[in-house]
Amino acid sequence: MTGWRMARAPLSLRQRLLLQLLGIAAMLAVLLYFTVRTVAGQAAEATQDGILGAATTAIAEQLRAGTEQVEIDLPYDAFSVLGSISEDRVFYRIDVGGETVTGYEDLPPPPEATGKVGPQFYTRPFRDTEVRIAAVTRQVVVAGQALPVLVLVAQTRQGQDAIAERIANRAAGLGLGFFTLALLLSLVAAGSVLSPIDRLAEAVARRGPEDLRAVDASAPRELVPLVGALNGFIARLRAALGRTETFITEAAHHIRTPLATVRTQAEIALRQSDNEATRQTLRGVIRAVEESARSATQLLDHAIVVYRSDRMTSDALEFGALVAGVVASIEPAASLKDVDLRLSPAPQPLPVTGDRALLESAVRNILDNAVKYSPEDSVVRLSLAAEDRRAVLRVEDRGRGLSGLDPASLSGRFRRGGNVADVVGSGLGLTIVTEVAAAHDGRFSLTEREGGGVCAEFSVPLQ
Amino acid sequence: MRRILCALAVILAPLAAAAFPVEEEHVFPGTGTGSELWILSTTDTEYFAPLLTAFQARHPSVTIRYTVTGSASVYTAVADEGVACDLAISSAMDLQMKLANDGLALPHASTAQLPDWAQWQDRIFGFAQEPVVLVTSRKALEGLALPRTRRDLIDLLRDHPGRFEGRIGTYDPLQSGAGYLFATQEARQSDSFWRLAEVMGANRPRLYASTKPMLDDLESGSLALAYNVLGSYAATRAAHDPDMALIEFEDFTLTLLRTALIPKGAQNPELAGMFIDFLLSPEGRRLSGQQGGLPPVNEAALVQTPRLRPIRLDPGLLVYLDRIKRRAFLEEWAAAVKQP
């Protein structure tokens, strides 16, 4: 059930921010609408009540004590002014001593006497409509007797309803405008709030693979812990890489030096011993030491390749010169086996870009293999050429070949062919070559030769 | 022409059902069995006939019954008797206002644009405005300057005691709704009304319930002055009688609206609404002004002529209809005019 939820990408910060801001804006807009409507409605009602009350009071103030009865004179303007805001129907009623003397007798009286001088307002259904009524009570003394006079003026509220509707429409427009403005401002605000994060991400993404400096982009307070953690991580990584490099160098030194000593001692002992059994043993020791030294070299080579391929240098190199250098270093080992290394250089220079140590390691491993698997007193041909914008090194031997094995499977780490049990090897050589080729956008292939042997082809792009 | 003659066939027989006094009743028969539009009006048929026939020309199947009565009768017919007429047309704006205020008028969504003082809600529609004027006989005032203001008239009457004895005509506000409206509005506008009433009262004025006999008496010479006459009627008479002079007082001249409303009991309110829209349409305004002699509502004319004071359609009109107020006003008026 939760599968689809987990599959959904989490909301981006921008989306979250926008959604929340818009949610708030929508709430405020609705609140604004109702507030404006309510306040304006109340204001409209207060205005109309004010006029209604004034009209009622104006009539009440025209009441005079006559000799026999209360004199009533309706002021024209009191009624006329009621029509000034809206065209509403007007009703009135005047009671003297509890009896209706003029007006609409069925106009509802106020619910209770308040004893106030000011008008009392209430809303009642009246005939076919509903009216707002203002009531004013006055005492008028006629012939020594105080008579209560009740003045009621009522007005329908169609005009106020129309005003309320108009205000509601305005308020709705106002709310909508407010929301639209908030939408635009939210977009700007989200962009501005998130810009430090974007800047930081960009600063980190722009770094090269070897750039392990601390991130020093100025970050807002909330991002300072993140930047701190990132910098701590980078520092630890840098230290770890440094330690690895030191370890590899130290290890190479600490393994190869004692092995070389053991070998020298064993060779001296071999020369000094006449006992055939002892000599046999010493030869075994030398062989084992050789194997160990070789393995150690290759392991270290491989470690360096792995370590360096993440942080390769890009040197401008001449591929021919590089190969010639390696050939010169292999020559002594080859001559021990009477293997003749014949290098045919390319007619033109072969400029390439790459890591010198890695490329040398790859070429050395190819030549090493070729020499190792060649029978004694044979020839290994090396040829250099520029083909299809690539510098190509071909190494052809007359060794035991691949015996039908898949060349790709030989590139696996610690994999060796099935026909090499008698030859010293770690199975790392071709792995190194393949990895160096991959790191340099190069190619490496092994093919069986006609008449026995293998042709190894290594190429990297020309500059 | 034949059609009009036919349409103007006067039916003088009073309706047995109607409790109000019918002055005239005309039926304009439509073709076939169309519905009937019954108009109860204070406006004389001759002024309305062009409008009625033009409306009928557009809706030939409609039969129009046009009944003329007094403005007080129009009110009582609708308010008290529940007469099922489709349209009530009256010059007594206050009574029309009271009908609508008391919920006895139906709303009509008119397409016409009227100034707010000439319309109340969507229930009362003013379609003609006319000044309330003084009509004099030039012969009777021979040698005297025509009065231009109420003050002039007061002076004229004071300076010539006896000359106008019994020769002044005006409405009886007790009998005529329009007369009561003019008197009350004038009293509201200016104190000179009461002084004038007293001066007229000294000349024993003759009181009329309607305009026609007043103008008849002026034409025959038995009256020298007719005070507060509806401008449209007077103008029609004056057009034929060069002896008559119409005077719009310069201090102020009340301007009355003839209004129409659809009573609650109307049988054909849609038809009545169509007639109101026709009255207010450009065609209706043209016919009413040029052929009927009822000038249409025209705000620009009021602005250009400052002496004209329109009586506004607003709840203030209800004040003088209050029974206490009315009694007090009439008592005061009687005391001023009916001097021993």
Automatic annotation (TrEMBL), chain A:
Residues covered by the HAMP domain: 191-242
Domain of life assignment: Bacteria
SUPFAM superfamilies reported in the protein's UniProt record: ATPase domain of HSP90 chaperone/DNA topoisomerase II/histidine kinase, Homodimeric domain of signal transducing histidine kinase
UniProt domain Histidine kinase: residue ranges: 250-463
One GO location term (cellular component): plasma membrane
Keywords associated with the record: Kinase, Membrane, Phosphoprotein, Transferase, Transmembrane, Transmembrane helix, Two-component regulatory system
Transmembrane spans: 174-197
Name this protein carries in UniProt: histidine kinase
Species: Gemmobacter lutimaris
Automatic annotation (TrEMBL), chain B:
Any one GO CC term of the record: outer membrane-bounded periplasmic space
Organism: Gemmobacter lutimaris
Signal peptide (residue range): 1-19
Taxonomic lineage from the root: Bacteria, Pseudomonadati, Pseudomonadota, Alphaproteobacteria, Rhodobacterales
Coiled-coil ranges (or none): none
Name of protein: ABC transporter substrate-binding protein
Keywords from the UniProt entry: Signal
Alphabetical list of PANTHER family matching this protein: PHOSPHOGLYCERATE TRANSPORT REGULATORY PROTEIN PGTC (PTHR30006:SF25), THIAMINE-BINDING PERIPLASMIC PROTEIN-RELATED (PTHR30006)
Pfam entry (one): SBP_bac_11
